[in-house]
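User: two proteins, same treatment. go.

Assistant:
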Amino acid sequence: MQTMEHGASYLQLSEQELAERVRRAYDLMRPSCRLCPRECGAERLEGEAGACGADHRLLISSSNLHHGEEPPISGWRGSGTLFLTHCSLSCLYCQNYPISQLGHGVETEVEELAGMMIRLQELGAHNINWVTPTHEAAHLLDGLHRARRSGLEIPIVYNSSGYDSLDVLKLLNGVVDIYLPDMRYADGGISMKYSGVPDYPEVNRKAILEMHRQAGDLRLNSDGIAVRGLLIRHLVLPLDMAGTEKVLRFISKKVSPETSISLMSQYFPAHKAPDMEDVISRRITPEEYDRAKALLKQYGLTRGWIQEI
């Protein structure tokens, strides 16, 4: 087994406290689910599918070492990613829609989930990376509790859409080491049109502030690998549908000017977007991305990563 690079936060919690977090997370699914901000009321533990598409079962689409995340997340050995099936958003342009919206995945028992995390650690993963975790927070905490008893000791990355409830985030305090959320929209009308939720900006901002309160600015070890903190992803959309300036201003003024930003140029029309008579049916232009890069400088956000067009 690899040597521990960082005393993972959940190792600081007692077995009893971690078990209590698991119990409270499942309570957010009883009798109706309140894990995500939709609070759709589905009786998921009774087999009813929620607005996210998930029911009582845990579906995982893949478990592997991923080398395509930001450099301090993937490092040189890879990030131990677990891609969860389904999503609390319903983005019309989702690039992972077979997983997030069509439900492609394998039913997995919680004990199997724990074994996946242990296996990724044994393969040399720098961290365990929960991708689209919001609606499966209870199963993930349960699996982590079991994996810890089997020797899991590497950091946890919470890789989400940024549409997260404060109740769930508070259960993750002292559990998650690295928060890797999106800040996707500044306007509720746009978030409703493209992702099906009108309150994304309000919910997202509260979630980001809570994540930063817990973990602080991103910190790296001597090898350049993330050990703790917040790293925000912002996907630049055509015709500034994401509201980039408002997003970056909020980060700089309300979160921290030392926040690490991953400014992404990788948008391409997927899922329903190619067939829409809408601006999101095209890629972004170099000029649109250059403007976003200039806004990073304008708001003093100098820590992070940009992509080439």
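Protein 2:
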Amino acid sequence: MKEKGETRILLLTDIHAPYHDKQALKLAIKFARKKEIDEVIVSELPDLYKVSSWLKNPDTMPFYQELEEVKQVARQIASAFPGKKFTYLSGNHEERITKYLWRHGEHLAGIDAFAPQALLGITELGWEWVDNKERLAKNQPVLQRGELTFLHGHEIKMGWGAVNIAKIMYERAGKNVIMGHFHRVQEWVVRKIDDKFSGCWSVGCLCDLHPEYNPHNNWIHGFAIIHLFEGGAFSVENRKIIEGKVL
């Protein structure tokens, strides 16, 4: 049961379609549909393997097919929450399109039809597109809901070898943050001298946990539901998915 004035936000991040975990995504959607969600924030829906700068396996699907599968997953998510507000938070994988154009098609860069949001079908769905990195470069505010800042996680530099990523991100951002990118479930919460609390939440991924390029890792499936209250206060359900169960 919602509190008066409460808004609930679902955060789905690091899906990496078409190389996503279909079961994990279904579990996250099924769980969230029971939670009276008001807004869905999706971050890093595609993998975009074929336009990455990494050495690529030629046996993987062609780029056009990858884009079509990404659009199918976007429509799957949209149909699960009809009539709700959707916000798309761009990550480092979406940058692969932009960087590919800079390297191989500079004359096409800047044309709306070749922008990531157009190629991924986000414009067609009518979702709001947010690029925090671009906003920071222009000294503009990043995505905020109440007193909680939403980052993908790549906007502030941090090594992948870091252990307590939530603590490091909190110290570098200097405010309440929720993020994906690192595919790990963590939180760092501090009580300040005025008895107020703040912190950082790292949310799990929904991608394949055993990709060819990194078959053994410390990633974990997960998603988050944020409860936003009048005045900007919030609470975070930082959910894990382990052995087919939402915990």
